[in-house]
Amino acid sequence: MTEKVNRHQERLPIVIAGGGPAGLASGIRLCQLGYQPLILDRPRKPAERKIGESLAPSAWAIIHKLGISHLVSEPSHLACPGHRSSWGHDGLISKDFLFDPYGHGWHLDRIQFEKDLRKEAQIAGCQFLDQSIQRLKHLDSGGWEISSEALQNPLQASFLIDATGRPSTVAHAAGARRMREDQLVAWYGFLKPSSKPSKDATGLIEARPEGWWYSALLPDGCMVAAFLTDPDLLPATGFQTSAEWEKWLDLTVYTKHQIRANGYRLIDNPQVAPAGSSILDSIHGPDWVGCGDAAASYDPLSSHGIATALASAMDSAQAFHDLSCGNPLTMERYGNRVNKSFELYKKLRTEFYGQENRWPDSPFWKRRNGH
Ligand SMILES: Cc1cc2nc3c(=O)[nH]c(=O)nc-3n(C[C@H](O)[C@H](O)[C@H](O)COP(=O)(O)OP(=O)(O)OC[C@H]3O[C@@H](n4cnc5c(N)ncnc54)[C@H](O)[C@@H]3O)c2cc1C
Q1: Is it true that domain 2-44+110-180+277-351 has CATH number 3.40.50.300?
Q2: Measured in angstroms, how far is the CA atom of residue 20 from the centroid of ligand 1?
Q3: Which of 15, 150, 188, 203 could form a disulfide with 157 if both were Cys (CB 3.0 to 4.6 A apart)?
């Protein structure tokens, strides 16, 4: 692909920056609309694990719309029958997906999901270049110059879709800024069973005075467990060590039981990843548009990050097409929809965090509940 791109020095009509769920979904949608976009994606590290996301049942609507429902099935992914939560009370409440109109949810093998989605995008007609974008320059004449190590000469593109996730590489190069609602981080680890893997695929959420825990079984029998808190509430030293993470896990009631009962042990040292809610101050601008986490990112509590990323990716691809067909208002309408969804989400987030009143003096809950 590198050779092909460098041989043809002409300007590409449309390039997608980032090949996560949003980049791949916008690529598939653009192919459906008659384009052949180039997707530039940072090369994956071997044996890289992703955080281990779940799809809520309602994600099926967008998965069907994109035509990729055949990608989400067993044995690659694990059916999720519901979740249990200790939130706002000391007990445990179960939410079964049995009566959900969309059926059960899924615990994804996220790497496999992306691999399959990428294959789908390739079949649809997307081209790929596995290189990080190192420099972006908006040209006075319009369009972009893209520099990457793999290219002898920079690439030129008339239009860029920013699907780089939370870094929002294109948006930042265009001068847009992220507006942050909070500083939430996930302190997470992957665990493997010492003997037989658990059979319980129910997700678990447990609120604690300093934040909340999420844990779930993964399709390969391993487990992911994450403590969601604010960076200043993490232990000042040693938050990269397994011992410190285990110490915090031991302060839980239900999460430690779910993990210890099946003899699960950390595979590697835990890691910290940003997990806060934020949105760009401009969702689009001259010759670019943002989608997925690059445009707006959501608290993992919502479990809607991937579905929202797929939906905004399809929507942004359609907006690009409409703009190319001479409708100048289309980008503004798309931006308004992203902003409106984020406002709605913020209300739901406030309501949900507001249900937890057991620790009125805890900085974590005070920051979210405003008292
Ligand atoms: C702790 C945590 C738990 C979560 N749990 C869930 C969950 O249970 N369910 C759910 O639906 N969502 C969950 N999410 C959210 C979900 O991970 C995101 O919403 C989703 O990954 C967004 O997809 P995306 O394609 O927009 O971004 P990403 O998945 O971040 O993809 C961005 C892509 O762009 C590439 N890229 C970045 N910079 C460059 C560059 N300079 N050049 C080239 N390529 C670049 C990256 O390598 C990557 O491939 C969770 C998030 C966190 C942090």
Answers
A1: no
A2: 6
A3: 15
Residue with CA closest to ligand 1 atom 35: 18
Q: Which residues of 303-320 are buried (b: 16+ CB within 10 A; e: fewer)?
A: bbbbbbbbbbbbbbbbbb
- Which residue has the CA at smallest separation from atom 19 of ligand 1? 305
Of residues 143, 130, 163, 137, the one with CA closest to residue 43: 130
Distance, in Å, from the CA atom of 309 to the CA atom of 338, rounded to the nearest integer, reads 11
Spatial CB neighbours of 172, under 8 Å, sequence gap ≥ 6: none
How much is the pLDDT for 46?
67
110 lines ligand 1 (CB under 6 A): no
Give domain limits for the chain: 2-44+110-180+277-351, 73-107+183-274
| Gap from CA of 275 to ligand 1 centroid (Å) | 10
| Angstrom distance (rounded) from CA 150 to CA 134 | 10
Q: Indicate whether residue 77 lines ligand 1 (CB < 6 A).
A: no
Do 233 and 363 contact (CB within 8 A), yes or no?
yes
- 189 close to ligand 1 (CB < 6 Angstrom): no
Percent of the chain, pLDDT > 90? 82
Residue nearest to atom 2 of ligand 1 (CA): 300
Ligand 1 neighbourhood includes 17 CB (under 6 angstroms)? yes
Give the three-class secondary structure for 76.
Answer: coil
pLDDT digits (tens, 9 = 90+) for 158-206: 999 999 999 999 999 999 999 999 999 999 999 999 988 999 999 999 9
Among 117, 147, 148, 164, say which to mutate for ligand 1: greatest number of ligand atoms within 8 Å of CB.
164
CATH 3.40.630.30 fits 73-107+183-274, yes or no: no
Measure the CA–CA gap between 367 and 369, rounded to whole angstroms: 6
